[in-house]
Every structure is written in C-alpha cells, then in structure tokens.
Amino acid sequence: MAANYWASTQRLHWQFSRTELQEILLNLENKDQPLTQQYPLPDRRMLSIFYNQQLGKLAKRMSVRQQALATAQLYIRRFYVQVDVRNTNPYLLLVTALYLACKMEESPQHIRVVVDHAKNLWPDFIPSDISRLGECEFYLISEMNSQLIVHHPYRTLHELQGRLELVQDDVLVAWSIINDHYLTDLPLLFAPHIIAIAAIFLALTLKQAPGGQHTAANMAAYLTNSNQTIRDGLSTLVSHDNLPEKRIGSFVKWLAEGEVDLQAVADSMQEIISLYDIWERYSEKMCKDQISQFVKARGLDK
C-alpha cells in the first residue's frame, strides 16, 4: 500500500470540498427526477447505517478484519457518488465491495464462499450465479477508475497513542468513533489524520460522560448536550482556560502548537455528533422496505 497519503489517488481524486460534494449528489438526484420521485429514500446517513449493519453480518460470517470492512465502506461511498442507488442492487454491491476490499487488504476470500454466505443472509436479493458478483466487481472497479488504495485514520490513531499518552480506553473509544465516521461523508471531505484527531478529542470528552458506556445512543445524548467547549470549534478551545479535564487541555495545547486544520477537526466532530443524533431516529425496517421496493420493482435482484 502506498505510504504517502498526500500523493495518493484518495487525496487527488476522492477528496472534495463540501460544496463540490453537495453539487455532485444533487446532480445525481436530478439526473432522473421521475425515478427519484417514484422511489424516495431516507437520509444518506440512515442508508449508511443500514449498509453498515448488513456488511457487519456478512463480515462476521467471513471473519473479516475491521480494516477490510472499512475499505469496503469507503468503496461503497465512492461508488454511490457516481451512481444513483436506485439503479443498483445495494445488497449485491455491498457483497462485492467487501469481496474486493478483502483482496486489497491481503485477506482474500473465495468468491463461492462469499456468495454462499451472502445468499444465506439475503436469499431474495443475491443471485446464485457467481458471475454476477464478478460483473459487479468490474462495475465497481470501473466507477472508481481502478483507484483502490485506501488510507485510513487508524494509522494516525496508533501513531498518536504514545505521543499523547492515550490510555487503552481512550484508544478503544476513538477506534469506535473512527469506525462510525464511515457512515458519513467525512471520508470524502477530510484527510485521515483530521478524522483521527477528531475521534481522539471526542473520545477524551466522552470520558466525562456518565455511565462510561459508549453506545451510539449514549454518545448522541452526551455529545449533543455537552458543554459549549466541544461545539464552538477548536480555535476557541485553544484559548479556553476551563476545559473539562486536564488531559483534554494538554491535547488542545498539542493541537495549537501544530499545523492541524482546526476548523476541519471541528467540522468533523460536528458531523459525527450529527450522525449519533440521527442514529436515534434510525429505522432498519424503513430502510429495508424502501430498498426492497425499487430493487424488486425494477428487477435488479435478477
């Protein structure tokens, strides 16, 4: 895997400004308005939560490592900024993305084994013919212009663990937050080190949360109601004298002395907080029903 993110295809071709990404997604929605109106979809983040849950079921059966799962999630997000989800069978695309990601992360799975596991999970949506997965793989690679190498925030988290004297609990919570950021557009907006730093800050902040349980519900409840320090942007935090914990103050001081884009970190935190907020309203049944509607009606499961 290429070591230099700054010269990577991820940065050069798959990193957008928020305005650019909004325009791309809007153009995709407007490309076929009758189709868009006929099959309305929930918030993209809710769909991402649904995709993540389904991928998790398949990954568990296949004993897939987290990094391969994260790579698959990013492949799916890249693909769906190129192609309207209503023109695809999302179940087949999820399976294909995980199959391809396993190969790229040097943990390949046999295509027949992958199809058999997927068929057992979603018998109404996965064709038995393994050539269909091969065709979808070609389609996925083509839409990503064969740019398959992915840089993840996990590496930065590992590098900063010692420098910032993070305890194991901090790392575990930050790791969990990094996992969750793939359910947002953040991987298409910011560099991996920005995501890692945002996750570390949120992890340190969550140490203040009552109960110490870091479920999506608890994160949402705590973060969205936490003190203004978290949500005002890190540029304000740098000069703030009454931070909730000394170690957070040390972390912010480290940020202030570096060359990190503080606004990008603050924006990333806001996006993650928004994800946990919308997670409270997530309905798996609604997402499943709306996906099934257009897949079945358009014969995309054949």
Summarize this entry quickly:
The protein is globular, with a radius of gyration of 20 Å. The protein is built from 17 helices and no strands. Helix content is 65%, strand content 0%.
Overall mean pLDDT stands at 87
Structural class: mainly alpha
What is the tally of beta strands?
Answer: 0
Proportion of residues in β-strands: under 5%
CA radius of gyration: 20 Å
What are the segments in which pLDDT stays under 50 over at least 5 consecutive residues?
209-217, 219-244
Shape: globular
Task: Please report the number of helical segments.
Answer: 17
Helix content: 55-70%
Cα-to-Cα separation, first versus last residue: 36 Å
Q: What is the quaternary state of this protein?
A: single chain
**Main sheet: strands, sense, barrel:** none
List the helices and strands in order: HHHHHHHHHHHHHHHHH
Describe the structure.
The protein is mainly alpha-helical. Helices cover 65% and strands 0% of the residues. The protein has helices at residues 9-13, 18-30, 33-38, 44-62, 66-79, 90-104, 111-121, 130-143, 154-163, 168-181, 192-206, 216-223, 228-231, 234-237, 246-257, 262-279, 284-297. The model is unreliable at 209-217 and 219-244 (pLDDT under 50).
Keywords:
mainly alpha
Describe how the helices and strands are arranged.
Blueprint: H1 9-13, H2 18-30, H3 33-38, H4 44-62, H5 66-79, H6 90-104, H7 111-121, H8 130-143, H9 154-163, H10 168-181, H11 192-206, H12 216-223, H13 228-231, H14 234-237, H15 246-257, H16 262-279, H17 284-297
Helix pairs in contact: 4-6, 4-7, 5-6, 6-8, 9-10, 9-11, 10-11, 11-16, 12-16
